[in-house]
C-alpha cells in the first residue's frame, strides 16, 4: 500500500509540473511571434466575446475546481476503502487540474490572438489558484487521513 501512495503522489506531481510547463511553452511560442499573434486584435466584437468568455470561464472554473474537490473528498472519497480512495483521489485531482487548465489555455489564446490583457489576467488567476492544489505525499496522507503508523 505504501508503494501505491508514493506512486499516486509522484504521478500527481508530474501532472502538476506539466500543468505549469504548458503556459511556459505557450509564452515561448507566443513571444517568438508568428502570423497568428494579434490576428483578431482589430475585431472589436470578437475581442469582447472572447474576453467575456474567458472571464466567465475563470470565474466558474476556479471556485468549482477548488470547492468540488473538497466536496468530493468529504462526501465520496472518505467513505471508501484505501485503494479505492487512492484511485478516486487521483481521478478527482486530475479533474481539478483540467478545470484549472481551461481558463489558462483560453486566457493565453485571448492574450495572443486578441492582444488583450484580460486574457492573461484570467490565466494568471487560474495559475495562482493551482498553488492551492500543490500535490505531495504529505498532503495526500493528510487529506485521506492516512498515518504512517497505521500502515506499518
TrEMBL record:
It comes from the Bacteria. The keyword Transmembrane applies. The chain crosses the membrane at residues 12-29, 49-74, 95-114, 120-138. It comes from Bacteroides intestinalis. Keywords: Membrane, Transmembrane, Transmembrane helix. This is Transmembrane protein.
